[in-house]
């Protein structure tokens, strides 16, 4: 790097701090540290402005499933931009890419799901779900059924409804959330909250909180339950096998709608097309985004079961809801190209049968490390619980300090991992091959060693 390039970077960082407010960021702290400017990417790697090459263990923000630098996605978008850059799907109109994408999604989704409502993001998808759930029960003649049950530490987006459905306390504290009619039960987080209970027993217990909550609120008031198949932003929390069958049983028994937030698990992350396939769930709604376009353009959607679609369609009347960019033709063209890549190149299948099991086998090795209390994963998702005492599952004080240190060291070692408190998480591009996986795990191992060495220099405030 020459001094001119360094000056450009410093100038860009200065402008960023003067004009750009970042999501989920302490702006004061960021301005003191300066931003990392990412300038290009290819395959599973990203490069920053200082020309550091990083293996992107997070696929951007859980979204670049097809990997970076796919010219076919760029060309599909460019071609559509020239032909028809925009038209809406209001007023009896639509566009060919939106139709073709809706058809392809219906093919890939579980058999009883055949309709999609397009949005611009995962948050918008979950806002849309709230509207549709309430519309469904209105049409059924039971408008008092409006309460949606969610889970603590869930993530369902950042809009008012998304953040309300989510169970992140620090988000609720800003803005007087959750909105009325949204309540939360415990999460199936055995490592953090299972205590001495057997994993499967714990899974059943937390699932049964749903039944208790329904009975406590009164079935006449409960509309739906929402959950991620595997919690992502909460820390890659993988429920015990006993959890989902019990949730499904309870939803079926009481006839409440089951919303599965597939924003992370969708499009191959678990090795199946959807988390609902992986756990054999029968949802009434699936929220999608992220991997739908591999992040190349913003787009989301709500996939709707026949039970719900029949009700919404057959009774007639307008759903008073929609976005300017619902079904955006360029985003839809990019999504189509992306989903076809995932399908036609066998990428989802490879994660299921080859690279996913290989990643899990190698990730499991990290569980032997003395800093790691548990290593867990499914498909191309993984988590490491950093602990001060392995057997006692004891945490370090000041959750996030050790995790933050580990993340910073990881980036210095050329690997993007994310820290959620003291849980390290990964969600790599689905195109990572065995060599990339070896590089990822080796760098993570080195990072754990170096983190352990540095921990004595951390100042914990007790
Ligand atoms: C990221 C995410 C969302 C929100 O998606 P945005 O596109 O950021 O609005 C919703 N649900 C889950 C499970 C997510 O991971």
From TrEMBL:
Keyword Transferase: yes
InterPro entries: Aminotrans_3 (IPR005814), Aminotrans_3_PPA_site (IPR049704), PyrdxlP-dep_Trfase (IPR015424), PyrdxlP-dep_Trfase_major (IPR015421), PyrdxlP-dep_Trfase_small (IPR015422)
Keyword set includes Magnesium: no
UniProt record, GO biological process: biotin biosynthetic process; gamma-aminobutyric acid metabolic process
CDD domains, per the entry: OAT_like
GO molecular function (one): adenosylmethionine-8-amino-7-oxononanoate transaminase activity
Cofactor list: pyridoxal 5'-phosphate
Domain of life according to the entry: Bacteria
Keywords annotated in UniProt: Aminotransferase, Pyridoxal phosphate, Transferase
First and last residue of the signal peptide: none
Recorded family membership: Belongs to the class-III pyridoxal-phosphate-dependent aminotransferase family.
Cross-referenced NCBIfam families: PRK07480.1
Protein name, UniProt field: Aspartate aminotransferase family protein
Organism (species): OM182 bacterium MED-G28
Taxonomic lineage of the native organism: Bacteria, Pseudomonadati, Pseudomonadota, Gammaproteobacteria, OMG group
């Amino acid at each position: 790097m020459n001094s001119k390039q360094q000056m450009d970077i410093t100038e860009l960082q200065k402008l960023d701090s003067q004009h750009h407010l970042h999501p989920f960021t302490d702006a004061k702290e960021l301005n003191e540290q300066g931003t990392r400017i990412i300038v290009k990417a290819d395959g599973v790697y990203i490069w920053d402005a200082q020309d550091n090459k990083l293996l992107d263990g997070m696929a951007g923000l859980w979204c670049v499933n097809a990997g970076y630098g796919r010219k076919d996605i760029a060309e599909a978008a460019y071609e559509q931009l020239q032909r028809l850059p925009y038209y809406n799907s209001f007023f009896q109109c639509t566009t060919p890419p939106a139709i073709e994408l809706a058809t392809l999604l219906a093919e890939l989704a579980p058999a009883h799901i055949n309709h999609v409502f397009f949005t611009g993001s995962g948050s918008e998808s979950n806002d849309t779900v709230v509207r549709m759930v309430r519309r469904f029960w209105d049409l059924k003649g039971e408008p008092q059924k409006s309460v949606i049950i969610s889970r603590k530490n869930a993530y369902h987006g950042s809009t008012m409804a998304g953040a309300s459905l989510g169970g992140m306390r620090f988000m609720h504290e800003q803005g007087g959330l959750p909105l009325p009619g949204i309540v939360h039960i415990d999460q199936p987080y055995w490592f953090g909250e299972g205590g001495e209970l057997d994993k499967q027993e714990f899974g059943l217990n937390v699932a049964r909180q749903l039944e208790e909550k329904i009975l406590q609120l009164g079935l006449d008031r409960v509309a739906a339950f929402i959950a991620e198949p595997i919690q992502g932003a909460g820390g890659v929390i993988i429920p015990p096998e006993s959890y989902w069958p019990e949730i499904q049983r309870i939803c079926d028994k009481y006839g409440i709608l089951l919303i599965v937030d597939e924003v992370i698990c969708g499009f191959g992350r678990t090795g199946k097309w959807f988390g609902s396939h992986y756990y054999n769930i029968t949802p009434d709604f699936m929220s999608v985004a992220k991997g739908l376009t591999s992040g190349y353009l913003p787009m989301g959607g709500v996939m709707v079961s026949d039970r719900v679609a029949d009700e919404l369609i057959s009774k007639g009347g307008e759903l008073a809801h929609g976005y300017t960019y619902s079904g955006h033709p360029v985003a839809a063209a990019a999504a189509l190209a992306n989903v076809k890549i995932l399908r036609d190149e066998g990428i989802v299948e490879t994660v299921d049968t080859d690279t996913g099991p290989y990643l899990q086998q190698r990730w499991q090795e990290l569980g032997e490390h003395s800093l790691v209390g548990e290593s867990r994963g499914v498909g191309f998702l993984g988590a490491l619980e950093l602990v001060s005492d392995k057997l006692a599952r004891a945490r370090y004080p000041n959750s996030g300090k050790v995790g933050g240190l580990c993340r910073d060291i990881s980036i210095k070692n050329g690997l993007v991992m994310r820290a959620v408190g003291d849980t390290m998480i990964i969600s790599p591009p689905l195109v990572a091959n065995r060599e990339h996986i070896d590089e990822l795990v080796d760098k993570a191992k080195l990072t754990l060693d170096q983190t352990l060495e540095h921990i004595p220099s951390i100042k914990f405030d007790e």
